[in-house]
Write a structure and sequence with these properties.
CATH class of the largest domain: Alpha Beta
Structural class: alpha/beta
Strand order of the largest sheet: 7-6-8-9-10-12-14-13
CATH superfamily of the largest domain: Response regulator
CATH architecture of the largest domain: 3-Layer(aba) Sandwich
Number of strands: 14
Bound molecules: beta-D-fucofuranose
Length: 351
């Protein structure tokens, strides 16, 4: 009997100590309130980023890091998925385990998402998709990004008008595509092809340059060997591929740009590309705006207040060219200005 009482007393003592400990630690948190690292007020966001393949991606990452900062009330877990779809799924699953308040995904590929998004839904973690699209699931609250098909259509419409204005009778394009499976690649390819088919152009070849400078150079080196003298246009699905393609053409003795034999254009329109347009090395560039994070922040703030959000939000973008001979193009009934790149336009580029 005595031992039983002793055991009970020891248990009570242990429990009291445990409660005191818990009380002390939560008391500690309270004393820290007002500090913006207080996890009670902080919104925990996990961002599964595509990788670090391009200047566009760097701008997107920087924008996310400065938007989802501690001083803006966030705790950001950033994962660079290095263009690896398995790694990206794993990152999202880790975010679920870590009980994030929100998960942001820039999907490397547009399919393969329904299972993991169902897991997010079951865990009651809202997902915001940024930049590229997901086409096999709608289990996300909002998507903020670009209309990639319109970008491809814009490129085609501009080229058709430019070729007419310049009296180029035969347009013979080569395409350097972005990464396979990315909605940015699919949309740009589809949009450009639609105009090529309408105009009766034959796309000589269309290969994957993986949205990188090295990839663009490699594809262009092989194009220069295989199609010497047979092409007069190179469509690069991002700026970095264009930089690589220029190196390959320099090495192969092919001239390009406003004074060259080959028209070269890019998508993204980072400052470096806009500068190349101004210098006439690139004929035109079709913007894809990487600064979507502040809009995602607005979406999250609305969700925090229990307000409804739009399922799709499109970024504003513009098209830029060296020469002032195609003032505008019309896509699906909407007329868009083609911006002639001047020093002032270049100075005002945000990224
Ligand atoms: O064009 C390219 C990047 O998804 C829109 O990915 C983005 C694309 C962008 O690597 O530079």
């Amino acid at each position: 009997m005595k031992t039983k009482i002793k055991r009970l007393a020891a248990l009570l003592l242990a429990l009291t100590m445990l409660f005191t400990l818990v009380a002390c630690s939560s008391g500690g948190d309270d004393t820290n309130s007002g500090d913006n690292t207080n996890s009670g007020d902080t919104i925990k966001v996990g961002f599964a980023q595509v990788g670090h393949e391009s200047d566009w991606r760097t701008a997107s990452t920087k924008s996310a890091q400065s938007t989802f900062s501690a001083e803006n009330g966030y705790e950001l877990s950033f994962v660079d998925c290095d263009n690896n779809t398995a790694r990206q799924l794993e990152a999202v699953r880790n975010f679920i385990q870590q009980k994030m308040d929100y998960i942001i995904i820039d999907p490397i590929a547009d399919t393969g998402w329904d299972t993991v998004l169902t897991e997010c839904e079951d865990a009651k973690i809202p997902v915001v998709v940024i930049d590229r699209n997901i086409t096999d699931s709608d289990k996300y609250v909002s998507w903020v990004g670009s209309d990639f098909k319109t970008e491809g259509l814009a490129c085609g419409e501009w080229l058709a008008a430019y070729a007419k204005a310049k009296g180029i009778s035969e347009v013979k394009p080569l395409v350097i595509e972005g990464s396979t499976g990315a909605s940015a690649t699919n949309g740009r390819t589809e949009g450009f092809k639609e105009i090529a088919d309408r105009e009766g152009w034959t796309i000589i070849d269309s290969q994957n340059g993986d949205f990188t400078e090295d990839g663009g150079q490699e594809v262009m080196e092989s194009y220069c060997q295989s199609y010497k003298g047979q092409f007069n246009v190179v469509i690069c699905q991002n700026d970095n591929e264009a930089y690589g393609a220029m190196t390959a053409m320099d090495n192969a003795g092919v001239t390009y740009g406003v004074d060259g034999d080959v028209i070269i254009v890019s998508f993204d329109s980072n400052k470096r590309a806009v500068e190349l347009v101004k210098d006439g090395k690139l004929n035109a560039t079709f913007e894809c705006n990487p600064l979507a994070a502040p809009t995602v922040d607005e979406v999250i703030k609305k969700l925090e207040k229990g307000e409804s959000v739009e399922k799709e939000i499109y970024m504003k973008e513009s098209w830029l060219a060296n020469e002032d001979i195609v003032p505008s193009i019309t896509i699906n009934g909407t007329t868009h200005e083609i911006i002639h790149v001047t020093d002032e336009v270049l100075a005002n580029r945000a990224y």
